Amino acid sequence: xxxxxxxxxxxxxxxxxxxxxxxxxxxxxxxxxxxxxxxxxxxxxxxxxxxxxxxxxxxxxxxxxxxxxxxxxxxxxxxxxxxxxxxxxxxxxxxxxxxxxxxxxxxxxxxxxxxxxxxxxxxxxxxxxxxxxxxxxxxxxxxxxxxxxxxxxxxxxxxxxxxxxxxxxxxxxxxxxxxxxxxxxxxxxxxxxxxxxxxxxxxxxxxxxxxxxxxxxxxxxxxxxxxxxxxxxxxxxxxxxxxxxxxxxxxxxxxxxxxxxxxxxxxxxxxxxxxxxxxxxxxxxxxxxxxxxxxxxxxxxxxxxxxxxxxxxxxxxxxxxxxxxxxxxxxxxxxxxxxxxxxxxxxxxxxxxxxxxxxxxxxxxxxxxxxxxxxxxxxxxxxxxxxxxxxxxxxxxxxxxxxxxxxxxxx
Amino acid sequence: xxxxxxxxxxxxxxxxxxxxxxxxxxxxxxxxxxxxxxxxxxxxxxxxxxxxxxxxxxxxxxxxxxxxxxxxxxxxxxxxxxxxxxxxxxxxxxxxxxxxxxxxxxxxxxxxxxxxxxxxxxxxxxxxxxxxxxxxxxxxxxxxxxxxxxxxxxxxxxxxxxxxxxxxxxxxxxxxxxxxxxxxxxxxxxxxxxxxxxxxxxxxxxxxxxxxxxxxxxxxxxxxxxxxxxxxxxxxxxxxxxxxxxxxxxxxxxxxxxxxxxxxx
Lengths: 411, 265
What we know:
Chain A has two domains: 42-287, Cytochrome Bc1 Complex, Chain C (Up-down Bundle), CATH 1.20.810; 291-403, Helix Hairpins. Chain A is 64% helix and 1% strand. Chain A is built from 16 helices and two strands. Chain A has a two-stranded antiparallel ribbon with strand order 1-2. In chain A, α5 crosses α10. Chain B is mainly alpha-helical. Helix content of chain B is 43%, strand content 6%. Chain B has helices at 3-28, 51-63, 86-92, 125-130, 150-159, 169-174, 213-228, 232-261, and strands at 97-101, 107-111, 161-162, 182-184, 191-192. In chain B, the strands form two sheets. In chain B, strands 3-4-5 form a three-stranded antiparallel beta sheet. In chain B, strands 1-2 form a two-stranded antiparallel sheet. Chain B has a domain at 61-68 and 139-257: Orthogonal Bundle (Cytochrome Bc1 Complex, Chain D, domain 2). The chains are: A mainly alpha, B mainly alpha. At the A-B interface, α4, α5, α10, α14 and α16 of A face α1 and α8 of B.
């Protein structure tokens, strides 16, 4: 961990001192979450890392309880979920929080990713921090996908069938890979069993990568809305109590919105078809994934060729890994990038349009629209960002964070 | 104020997300003619189940629907949650016999107990399909949640039959309807295997409610809405307490946050 800040703390409590001398967890907490110097100018976008962490913990806590009552068998899974809902004390609460928690975890993470993009948080020296974040995002997608299969409703079954079948597009070995993924020749009990095992495993892998994400974050500290490095103590505040309080407030506000859905519209983000037990002989009219996958689903279907679609879909995430090197501008914050700022917002609109395309059956004007939106998505990352950094003239950066904050207050 | 545009952005982002998911849900609802909008006792953040309507709905289920449709996730004991006493429920099920095994392992029928799940009309899925032109009637346990806009859709479906002689020639041609088909305004594809299940005075309500087919449809929907989510009232009550707590906590957190930051602003 960075050794730059402060002398080792002295603890008055003898037990704490004794432990800390042998296992410095208290020094660590003191250094990384108390005195840790943090830019003083965060806006509320900086809450979403803490919010995502809270959602991860909530998902694991409710998930462990659900797993103790769930039966991963094709003949019993659907009824066991309903049994949790009906007969397990507070089971309905655990299930509501878990299924809506997934959506809100993604909402938090999407806003967190947007913040990173808008304020250039991926730029040197935070490239690995960003890449670890993309790894977390990928793991979340895998976990959420497998979790949606577990209730074994119609969308569970057919979603699993469609997504696993994507791998059959791989030349030569595709079909063998699909058989291997399924553990048989169709989505069946072995598939459900392994998805349950992996759905339980991956969240702990996410926890481990989150730990690395935080370690990487604490080497150079957080970026900030101005995108300039703190130059001294006047630019920073200790993490506690300033940001523990601000994050805590943000978390509670986020939880209010979450509770609004979980308690008053628990099935709003779900699909009614998933209350129909899985039936391999009846295909739903429209197979759609959960809402948070819709933009990627649109990219998959925008390409007329199956293999091309799969490559485009995975490419849409792969491109995020190299984002730090695609963006050639040295200015981090979009606040000082008059052109990039607008293109960043256009990208957000583009992704939302892709979401609508993914929700609709691929017919009529949705096909060309999703193709245009897909092209724009890649255009943004592969063409626009490298060029923009060269031709854009950034606004003058303020001399320091403190300077900008105090001038802001005066004006 | 540099922070102001960012707040606007955050708010507009949240609105866009909400609109996005609303549109996605609307799209998922499909393109068939929408059933008429009804107002339900269980709607809204404080809505509860109308116990009297749900009890009447159970009567409709028991006397009409149960001949073909199972309700496998419910047990007879659950009926006590509709405001019936143990003895009343025992009275309702006194004539029902359920299959079981005796001590010698031989199949028998014995009187239903409170702990039994609702008796299925057919011994298995194949038998159900065989008795219904090849397609088993679906289980109704979570039917209200399994259809987009469930309560209105089911009410519309149950009252949306159009007799053959009332169909336009165009409808008959477009959907290839014959005299033996059942035409339903709200069913996707319109031709539905289920014959019109309800009719005026098909059941006689003990509480004197006029037994129109519309009333029967409303009552069965009230009952099935309860069946698909028996804990709904508990959920809403808990939600009110959780949100009130969080609002108070947010207020305190904001006040303390302001205090903590007062020397930095």
